[in-house]
Write a structure and sequence with these properties.
By secondary structure, the chain is α+β, with helices and mostly antiparallel strands. Helix content is 30%, strand content 17%. The protein folds into two domains: 2-279 and 419-434, 3-Layer(aba) Sandwich (Rossmann fold), CATH 3.40.50.150; 293-415, DNA Methylase, Chain A, domain 2. It has an eight-stranded mixed β-sheet, with helices on both faces. The protein has a two-stranded parallel ribbon with strand order 2-3. Strand 13 (326-331) and strand 14 form a beta hairpin.
């Protein structure tokens, strides 16, 4: 089952996983997508256009959880895996950490929909065996007042439902994909599975200073090879199960107690700063030995570029100003004077490197610091077309092109998506781990 499905990024990634007999390893039987702030449900419309209408419930997930008929339909389908990227705006780097609302924000509370779904499946006598979740990496350090407490609450709630959890911060570009997109991935196994037993055993070994699960034995380490960052150390601390357990979490003096990789099982957290292994061949991930670049994506477009995507000469000074380095004197709401600084950004963007992170404003026509600008084959500067944004996330060109949708909305949908090839790698490792 796919929660917060968007246009179907998890489904796109998982449906590429094949068994040794070349059969589909995963099948999505139920999905939910609903955008409460939008009258027109564009993400759901794209999902239906590409995957069909029978699997998607386009209603508020909290209302779905209160509808006996819809929940009963899950009993008949009996899903054993839950996947989803619960909304991340309340943790996003698009706002200062001090302004992020975390689990208390309008989007952050969506985590509790995941928790309630787990409770519902347990009450039905058919607990979900595995979870694969995605969010921005700032979740590890939210909220600003107690860095890491939100993540501690999530880990405690998962333990209460009988899960062991591993996590990793992953940059898609480190595995050959054409976009620098850092995201937190979590894989959880229920106590009824052999995978849980192995995770709990490795967590016990980690308490003695061993790192097998984080570096070699875990689902995420097998999917996306990693090593300990130079100078990094393993941290081990207790995170017991209980209604008030998360309140006992104490952040480190330098910030969150949760590093970029870790495992939580049986009341213990083992975490270390992990980085991607240096790879020289990316065939396993992209089908090509060489790492993909923004230029590879742009060259496939050829001349199929709408005139509106080209930058007007009169607008160039504004673009240049927004992309330039700056230091601006400001005063906080509490009267504290400070300087807001930003470094210079490449203008136009380099074609021999991966794209920067695609965000929701990417499809806008106005000048913007964060919007990609590339040099077209004829020398003119232009924004990326929606098809290029789709490819950067692993979708086919034209995937979001349905009747009535605007280029800006297509860009918005891709800003909310994920790099589907990472899901394929994780799904493949999960399937192998449970067989």
């Amino acid at each position: 089952m796919e929660l917060f499905a968007g246009v179907g990024g998890f489904r796109q990634g998982l449906e590429q996983v094949r068994t040794p007999a070349q059969q589909a390893a995963f099948k999505v039987v139920w999905a939910n997508q609903y955008e409460p702030a939008s009258k027109k449900q564009w993400a759901a419309e794209v999902y239906r256009a590409r995957w069909g209408v029978q699997d998607l419930v386009n209603e508020d997930i909290f209302e779905v959880l209160q509808e006996p008929a819809l929940m009963a339909s899950l009993d008949a389908l009996c899903p054993d895996v839950l996947v989803g990227g619960f909304p991340c705006q309340d943790y996003s780097v698009a706002k200062p950490l001090s302004h992020s609302q975390g689990l208390q924000g309008d989007k952050g509370v969506m985590w509790w929909a995941v928790s309630r779904m787990l409770q519902a499946r347990r009450a039905a006598g058919a607990p979900l065996k595995y979870l694969v979740l995605e969010n921005v990496d700032r979740l590890l350090s939210s909220p600003a007042t107690c860095p890491g407490q939100d993540f501690a609450r999530i880990l405690v709630s998962l333990q209460q439902e009988g899960y062991a959890v591993e996590w990793r911060v992953v940059n898609a570009a480190d595995y050959g994909f054409a976009q620098k997109r850092r995201r937190l991935f979590m894989v959880a196994a229920h106590e009824s599975t052999p995978l849980y037993t192995r995770m709990a055993a490795c967590a016990g070994e980690a308490q003695q200073g061993s790192l097998p699960w984080l570096l070699s034995a875990g689902v995420l380490s097998k999917a996306l090879p990693a090593s300990v960052k130079d100078g990094g150390k393993l941290q081990v601390f207790s995170l017991p199960v209980g209604d008030f357990a998360a309140m006992s979490y104490v952040p480190l003096k330098r910030g969150s107690g949760f590093a970029s990789g870790g495992v939580c099982a049986a009341g213990w957290v083992c975490t270390a700063p992990l980085v991607a292994q240096k790879l020289t061949d990316f065939t396993e991930f992209t089908g090509l030995a060489q790492a993909l670049t923004l230029g590879d994506v742009v060259r496939e477009t050829g001349e199929a570029v709408a005139p509106a995507c080209f930058l007007a000469d009169a607008a160039l000074p504004k673009w240049q100003r927004l992309k330039a380095a700056k230091s601006i004197a400001r005063v906080s709401a509490h009267g504290h004077a400070y300087h807001f600084s930003e470094g210079a950004m490449a203008f136009p963007d380099r074609l021999d490197a991966p794209a920067r992170t695609v965000i929701t404003s990417e499809g806008g026509a106005g000048a913007s610091r964060t919007t990609h600008v590339v040099r077209h084959a004829d020398g003119r500067l232009r924004r990326l077309v929606p098809e290029e944004l789709e490819v950067l996330n692993g979708f086919a060109r034209g995937f979001t092109d349905i009747a009535g949708i605007t280029p800006a909305k297509r860009g918005f949908l891709m800003g909310n998506a994920l790099v589907t090839g990472l899901v394929t790698a994780i799904g493949r490792a999960l399937w192998q781990a449970q067989t």
